[in-house]
Write a structure and sequence with these properties.
Blueprint: E1 4-7, E2 10-13, E3 18-24, E4 33-39, E5 46-52, E6 55-58, E7 66-71, E8 76-81, E9 90-98, E10 101-104, E11 108-113
Parallel strand pairs: 2-11
Antiparallel strand pairs: 1-3, 3-8, 4-5, 4-9, 5-6, 7-8, 9-10, 9-11
Length: 114
């Protein structure tokens, strides 16, 4: 059972920055991919960004503002969020794809005030 623990969420003004962290209980290099998703109130969960192998990708809505990165030594994946907008307000979830299945973290709240 892989455990994922997110942290770093909070309240920030529009235009500000936050860095989310997702600490995994196992070596993240054994995972096929790790990703961030988010879910705003009343909306479906949506994909934000993925890191897999040596590549990364992100949703069009956050491109140029959000960056996903991983630190294998710490078994941690980060989501650096800059130029935050009120529409980025959501619960952000970490997701891992492994040979044993998919795993989710408990989520961390990000609130961007206008």
């Amino acid at each position: 059972q892989v455990q994922l623990v997110e942290s770093g969420g909070g309240l920030v003004q529009a235009g500000g920055s936050l860095r989310l962290s997702c600490a995994a209980s196992e070596n993240i290099f054994t995972f096929s991919a790790m990703a961030w998703y988010r879910q705003a109130p009343g909306k479906q969960r949506e994909w934000v960004a993925t890191t897999s192998g040596g590549s990364t990708s992100c949703a069009a809505s956050v491109k140029g503002r959000f960056t996903i990165a991983r630190d294998a030594a710490k078994n941690t994946v980060y989501l650096q969020m800059n130029s935050l907008k009120p529409e980025d307000t959501a619960v952000y979830y970490c997701h891992a794809v492994t040979v044993r299945g998919d795993y989710w973290g408990q989520g961390t709240q990000v609130t961007v005030s206008s």
